[in-house]
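Retro notes - structure team

What went well: the batch runner handled both jobs without manual restarts.
What didn't: labels got mixed up in the shared folder, which is why I'm recording both outputs here explicitly, each with its sequence directly above its tokens.

Job 1
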Amino acid sequence: MSNLSSTMKFKKTKRNSHGSIVESLPSDLLIEVLTRVASSSFTDLFNAKLSCRNFLEASKDTFVMKNISIEKFPTIPWWQVKDEVSSFLKACKESGNPEVLYRQGMMEFFSWKKVESGEEYLKRAMEMGHMEASYVYGIILLCKGGESNEEQGMKLLNAVKKSRKLGECRKRTRAFTLSMWIRNPIVKCQELTTCHAKTCGRRNNGGIGGKRGWPWIEDDEDKDVEEVNYCEACIWDDEVSLFCKLFR
């Protein structure tokens, strides 16, 4: 009996010690820890929330919600989602979670025909460093035309190319568009650039879709586009054309 009492006392002391350690940590540190957990796994965050009250309270912080990973959530929940899931995603959006903003922007712009608000969501996600949002928003700016839009659009796309994630952005964007109803197909509003630069490799390639096709985009690999000696305008012109094919 005495041994059993000693064991129970030890376990109780151990639990109290664990609880007191967590309770002694400053809230800023708890939030930072949970943010790192949330950015890699929603499941791990959920388990942490169940472990103690302090983690539960810290998990409600805006910074945690802003950085939480929602990769395991379906891109577009066609079925009726539970109230708690809907509330969770709404909280993520209000906290400025870039992935949620990107998904909202894609749905509003391409499916719900809410062009202005959809573009704004994509822009917000882009400003927070979301790569697919930067890619799509850059394409949209090029399609809108105008010197300012084209300059900003090429700047965004160049940043994506520099990150070596251009191929990944294409694949993920394509997967997203295949999962939703397209009611607002993006259309390039200006004519394709006619390049007269003597040094541009496009002149010797038969133009867009010529003999060599799109050597840097056909296989979705992030190849060094400079090796084909195309000018910047031609490179992104072809990229826009490829993107628009998703909606035909």
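Job 2
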Amino acid sequence: MDACSLAGHKRPMSFLPIVHAPDYDANFAPDHRFPMGKYTRLMELIRASHIGERTIVHAPGPASAEWLSLAHHRVYVDQVLACKVPAFIEREIGFPVTERVSLRARLATAGTVMAARLALAEGIACNTAGGSHHARRAQGAGFCTFNDVAVAAHLLLADGEVGQVLVIDLDVHQGDGTAEICAGTDAIRTVSMHSEKNYPVRKQASSIDVALPDGVRDAAYLETLDWLLPRSVAGFTPDLVFYNAGVDPHENDRLGRLSLSDRGLKDRDRRVFSFFRERGIAVASVLGGGYSRDIEAVAGRHLMTFEAAAEFA
């Protein structure tokens, strides 16, 4: 169902706002280390699932250079928009910054801004991309071109739409770029729970970091999360939470070092959405990491986040 079909009618609260653009998928080769096809397949799975008819899909336009420059140096922004990123930065990103990659990064960033504004209006919203948390102020890294959450947080603060923002990053990798960009901004609290021995080798200091040993399974992970969530808002009153719901803590993820099951991942998502929605705090979910040569499997893991979000829409 799209927004036009509800024109002129009050939208039932049970509908989940989703942000998606076909060009989130830059059509990488199937054997590329970054499973680009998961974005297309995820949206197909959402539409075919039991939540498909309970979603309203919104399409973003590309983020402007002015928006992007709130979190990134303008020189780097201009390099990406012109597709003239230095080779050494492209190596750190993990792929060349072509026109399709540049457009994808701009759309995903604007998608997170749109999801944030929808969440503020409706309580919860999800972007089918985003969570590019390794992109730093001066460059991209780790399959991340622009840091969409950092851009969105700074934009909403600058526009006065929020007073405080919380970032809960449960991707298996530390949110080093988000921590670096947001350091020193008291209105943004960054929280990362991640695999201690995984990428990046050099971590940045988030407001709160929880580094987990290899092989952590469901029970220990969820117990730690139950400890962490109340601490994430201690002495802090966010108007909005960005939730990086990366599925790479899964036991079968190619780049993860943790051992969560499907059930563990979905219980994780339910806990996050439940905790903040019970407190009346808006949640904007972004996709984050998930790595497998089996696109069907990784897209199916991401689908569970949207199913969990729909329970709290």
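One thing worth noting from job 2: The beta strands are 16-19, 55-58, 124-127, 165-169, 188-195, 208-212, 240-244, 282-286.
We'll revisit the folder naming next retro.
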